[in-house]
Amino acid sequence: MFGKQFTKLSLFFFGGIAKLLLPRFRDLPKTLTFANINEDAHTYLSNILFLSFFFGLVLIFLMIFVMLKLNILFNIFSFILLIVISFTFAGLLFLVLYNYPKYVVLSNKKQMEGELEASMRHLSALQDPNLGVKDVLLLLQEIDNNKLLTAESKKILAMADLNKNLVETLNYVCDTTYSEQEHNFFLRLIDVLEGKAKLEKVINDYMTSTEQITKEKEEQKKSRITLLFEINIFLFFLVFILIFSIFLIPVYQTTIKNILFVISIVFPIMELILIFILNK
């Protein structure tokens, strides 16, 4: 994901820190594997620490330059404030980069569950009592737009051909998948193979449960969108005040400085809140 030279620098400067912090990020190795990012957790953590630190450093010098250009008083207090603001944003960048593999996994999970839902509709429409588990896995490869499910079903059938045990293969997939719906569906297919359930009932039960989950997600989405809309309106007015105040500096210099001081503290806090909401 990151270049070789960048990785060498990050390991040189932050390799030790990353090694100390790694036990606090226990899920990172597994997440990187699910996201198909070809870096070990130690290297990835070093890279994002170095990038975040470099971003914070550049931001400090940029804000010092802006303050000098605007003739804003530069002293120890303002310098400490600049450090706090810069590394607040550096922290936000670190959070975004740390959560990037999770975003990839969530995107794949959403795609996988969308493919499963569409496939179950297709299978329920067939109404074929002679369908078996292997037939279902083969049909998953034939349904249009099944990118992830096609790869998964091919892997399952290839492993089953090698070990001659489809139940064991499905159990392995259940233990290593990142999708709860895929996990639950393949567990139910194991029940079918062991004679504990009928395939038709498994498909119908899956359709019923996904409809309920979809309704719950829609309600959560509406609440989150409303909250994000309100926060964005607040941020819009903050930016508007910031831009408008620049034109008033010659007349109300002291007042504007106080306003900018308040905004410089409030804005990073609001950004942190936004990041938190988006991660929920």
Task: Give a short synopsis of this structure.
The chain is mainly α. It contains 10 helices and no strands.
| Secondary-structure element string | HHHHHHHHHH
**Taking Cα atoms only, what radius of gyration do you get, to the nearest Å?**
26 Å
Biggest sheet features: none
Count helical runs.
10
The low-confidence parts are none
Shape: elongated
What percent strand? under 5%
Q: Helix fraction?
A: over 70%
Q: Give the distance, in angstroms, between the N- and C-terminal Cα atoms.
A: 25 Å
Q: What number of domains?
A: 3
Let me know the number of strands: 0
What is the typical, i.e. mean, pLDDT?
Answer: 82
Structural class: mainly alpha
Secondary structure layout plus pairing:
Layout: H1 4-21, H2 28-34, H3 41-69, H4 76-126, H5 133-142, H6 147-163, H7 166-176, H8 180-193, H9 199-248, H10 253-279
Helix pairs in contact: 1-3, 2-4, 3-4, 4-9, 4-10, 5-6, 6-7, 7-8, 8-9, 9-10
Q: Could you name the key traits of this structure?
A:
3 domains; 280 residues; mainly alpha; single chain; 10 helices
Task: Describe the model.
By secondary structure, the protein is an all-alpha fold. About 85% of the residues lie in helices and about 0% in strands. The chain is built from 10 helices and no strands. The radius of gyration is 26 Å and the shape is elongated. The protein starts with a helix and ends with a helix.
